[in-house]
Design goal:
The complex is a heterodimer of chains A (323) and B (479). With 323 residues, chain A is mainly alpha-helical. Helix content of chain A is 73%, strand content 0%. Classes of the chains: A mainly alpha (323), B alpha/beta (479).
Chain lengths: 323, 479
């Protein structure tokens, strides 16, 4: 301010700061633009490199030749990216050969190391990479993460990757490792348990008869529908009389999945269940299994006090009536 | 004391008052800038350390489609006969195992309903309304045998809030996705938005996504086929504003568990949470801000654990105003909506019962939307006045304007750098340079005009002007 030289002095400093700040920002923008420009220019080269790398890896797999030039030059990340791409295209023996190649070249060593140390982000990225590629060392590292990581989210991430590789542990260990007795059950847990059911049906039948907390019982009963085994109908029929509504709902879902008419009798009985979610689910099961014998009860449910039950009854009547 | 002495005293008091107000405004603007800087730094930290969204659900949903929580997409529309069928086709084509589309025709006076009936072979059906939240009469519900997951609700004209409430009443899925019918969700938008619910224990109430500007991009069949930069500078400035709002402010606020706004153009909610609070309010023009604030309030008062989060990878494209009048109407409406929300939930402000939301989140809205615009605008007017009165020197004026431009540009550049490093959705290096240039130019007129529009919104708020002023969008470019 006039007559206050300090103000002018401060203003002069502020103007200088602005000037240097503007120069710094111009430099930042220039770097961002140049970086992007270089990326755009090198994209074609990178794609070509990836093609060469893929071609060489396929050649190395087929004729067991030693490392070829593009493979020699490539960074570990690029090698793994190429392996990941090939992995999506091959199955059976070819995939086993690819995994053996990965093991032989120690391509996953770094991810294995990073899966159990460092920041959460690094661990998750390593776990996801191991799940994407697979193989014995990936399975070992993921199993170790599931067993030993202190962070529940990391263990869940490892479980999801193990499910992808069909490497989940037995159901009782799975329940213990994920601490399901103390945690709320989420759709992700249900998905993982269903994966487990397809691989370990006998262990699931055994655990279905055990004394479990109701949420876990519902989880197990739901998974029984994915065992592809009609022997599951016996424990499902027992679950239909469970005192806990979510277990009865799970029994209906599992029976719908198996689609065996032997379950019709108790599904139709559950149309008169005291709990609205069970009635609503029983209606949906009748609809999906085409149980026209349930139509009279469903017609009655059009007057149900629960709007959800009325809605499902309306939809089922429309579907079964039209069938 | 002589008259001259009295006049001198009045002049001195007047000048001192002016300077004092100036300092007060300067303090408010400084706090606002510090908040923006803090949000940018926090957002950078979140981006650097966060665990990227998982794709594990996609794999699992491929096998177990029934485990993907069903979603009802609610698309209210009004007089959109020309574009509605494209929009609905795009919504039906979204990648998701189990979603229904509920189009609510909010009493359109054109042929929107007829277009839907003809385009999708709709016929009147019976459908149970699970909750009555709308205030207007439902004229009919339509379904289609060919498109089993499409429902059209025809109702009397209300407003967007009333139309969404009508859709909410008919939604049968546990998750609802509320969108504007003229917005474009990327094909994997629903998958990305529903993914956090897959591993959630029931405490997650809502997920917001980033809104981006589609002006200039090529839209085909309801999808953005080719992302391009708009030709006009007005939408280019808005690109920067949206980046700042979504990639810094919302990222930071979500990280601090005080996300106050999920844009009306796209948001995923637990249906029951919305029904429990009675849906959207009809008596505000800022229903999206209000509904999230009310969710916070309800949960804090009930002392229930809950989360409202933001996922920047979810992208919804919208058409930004291309004229100054349209922009004025939009910004005035946002300002009015913010003031209405603050007025309605004033008791939450600085009330420890509402935790961070009451102690920080809402006060930030007060600084941003109540004090900020008039204070900054006053600063722009005051500094030249002080100069002409001989109170401030040319050096001070220059310093003020250069610092203002520097700060505004620095925040924009920081956000642009975040976007480029983390998400990279800007089409090309050339476009990046143009947006960088826009970050400088926007300080020379656009920013000040925006402040004036916000002050106009305040005027409308105090006059209780509830008219809906159109943002006058140009429509998407089609090839």
């Amino acid at each position: 301010m006039v007559g206050v030289p300090v103000a002018d002095h401060v203003a002069w400093i502020a103007t200088l700061v602005s000037l240097y700040g503007a120069l710094a920002m111009a430099a930042v923008l220039l770097i961002l633009v140049m970086r992007r420009d270089r990326r755009e220019r090198t994209r074609a080269v990178e794609q070509e490199t990836m093609r060469n790398l893929t071609r060489e890896i396929v050649a190395m797999l087929s004729d067991r030749s030693g490392a070829l030039p593009a493979f020699e030059r490539a960074q570990p990340n690029a090698r793994l990216a190429a392996i990941g791409n090939i992995g999506q295209l091959v199955r059976g023996e070819d995939r086993a050969q690819l995994i053996a190649f990965v093991e032989e070249q120690h391509l996953l060593d770094r991810a294995v190391r990073e899966s159990n140390r460092g920041s959460r982000r690094k661990r998750v990225e390593a776990i996801r990479l191991l799940g994407k590629i697979g193989g014995p060392s990936a399975l070992d590292a993921l199993t170790r993460a599931l067993r030993e990581d202190d962070d529940a989210d990391m263990r869940l991430e490892a479980a999801a990757m193990l499910a992808r590789l069909d490497g989940l542990p037995p159901p009782d260990e799975f329940i213990a490792r994920l601490g399901l007795a103390e945690r709320s059950i989420t759709p992700l847990h249900r998905a993982l348990f269903r994966t487990l059911a397809a691989r370990r049906p006998d262990e699931l039948f055994t655990i279905a008869g055990a004394d479990l907390p109701p949420p876990i019982r519902a989880l197990v009963v739901d998974a029984l529908g994915w065992t592809e085994d009609f022997a599951a109908l016996v424990p499902l029929s027992a679950a239909a009389d469970d005192p806990h509504g979510p277990v009865r709902v799970a029994a209906i879902d599992a029976a719908s999945r198996l689609g065996h008419p032997a379950a019709a009798r108790w599904i139709i009985r559950l149309l008169d269940d005291p709990e609205p979610p069970v009635r609503a689910r029983a209606i949906r099961a009748c609809q999906s299994m085409g149980l026209r014998a349930g139509l009279p009860a469903i017609a009655r449910l059009r007057q149900d006090p629960s709007p959800w039950v009325r809605l499902r009854a309306q939809q089922a009547e429309q579907a079964l009536g039209a069938a | 004391m002589t008259i001259a002495g009295v006049m001198d005293l009045i002049g001195t008091i007047g000048t001192a008052t002016l300077v004092a107000i100036g300092f007060l405004c300067f303090a408010v603007v400084t706090v606002r800038n510090l908040v923006s800087t803090g949000q940018l730094l926090l957002a950078a930290k979140v981006f650097a350390t966060r665990i990227r969204p998982a794709t594990r659900s996609y794999d699992l949903w491929t096998r177990y489609a029934d485990l993907a929580l069903p979603v009802s997409v609610i698309a209210p529309c009004f007089n959109e006969a020309l574009s509605i069928n494209d929009c609905v086709r795009a919504l039906l084509a979204l990648e998701y195992p189990d979603h229904e589309v509920i189009v609510v025709n909010d009493g359109s006076s054109d042929a929107t309903l007829e277009a839907l009936i003809d385009g999708f072979e709709m016929r009147p059906i019976e459908r149970e309304q699970l909750a009555v939240l709308q205030q207007t009469r439902i004229r009919g519900v339509y379904g289609s045998e060919r498109y089993a997951n499409l429902i059209v609700i025809d109702k009397e004209n209300g407003r967007k809030a009333d139309a969404v409430n009508a859709g909410l009443g008919f939604a049968a899925a546990p998750l609802v996705c509320v969108i504007d019918a003229d917005s474009i969700i990327e094909p994997d938008g629903l998958l990305r938005a529903a993914e956090p619910f897959m591993a959630d224990d029931g405490s997650l109430l809502a997920v917001g996504g980033a809104i981006r500007i589609a002006n200039g991009s090529i839209v085909e069949g309801g999808h953005v086929r080719d992302i391009r930069l708009p030709r006009g500078w007005l939408p280019r400035f808005q690109i920067l504003e949206y980046l700042r709002a979504f990639l810094t402010a919302r990222m930071a606020n979500a990280d601090l568990d005080m996300l106050m706004l999920i844009s009306g153009a796209f948001g995923m909610f637990r249906r029951q949470a919305l029904v429990d609070i009675g849906g959207y309010r009809h008596d505000t023009v800022g229903e999206d801000l209000e509904v999230v604030t009310r969710l916070h309030r309800r949960m804090r008062e009930a002392k229930k654990p809950y989360r409202i989060t933001f996922v920047p990878e979810i992208v919804c494209w919208t058409d930004a105003p291309t004229t100054w009048t349209g922009l004025r109407n939009q910004r005035a409406r946002w300002e009015q909506g913010a003031l209405e929300t603050i007025e309605r939930h004033a008791r939450m402000i600085f009330n420890p019962r509402y935790g961070r939301v009451g102690m920080v989140g809402l006060p930030l809205i007060v600084i941003e939307d109540v004090l900020g615009p008039p204070c900054e605008l006053f600063g722009y007017v005051l500094i030249p006045i002080l100069y002409f009165m001989g109170i401030a020197s040319g050096d001070v004026v220059l310093a003020f304007f250069s610092l203002t431009v520097l700060f505004g540009t620095a925040i924009s550049f920081g956000t642009l750098a975040l976007e480029e490093v983390q998400l990279r959705r800007t089409p090309s290096a050339r476009d990046l340079a143009i947006i960088g240039l826009a970050a400088v130019i926007e300080n020379l007129g656009y920013r000040q005009a925006n402040l004036a529009f916000r002050v106009y919104g305040m005027w409308r708020f105090f006059r209780k002007d509830a008219r809906w002023a159109s943002a006058g969008r140009a429509g998407f470019s089609r090839q």
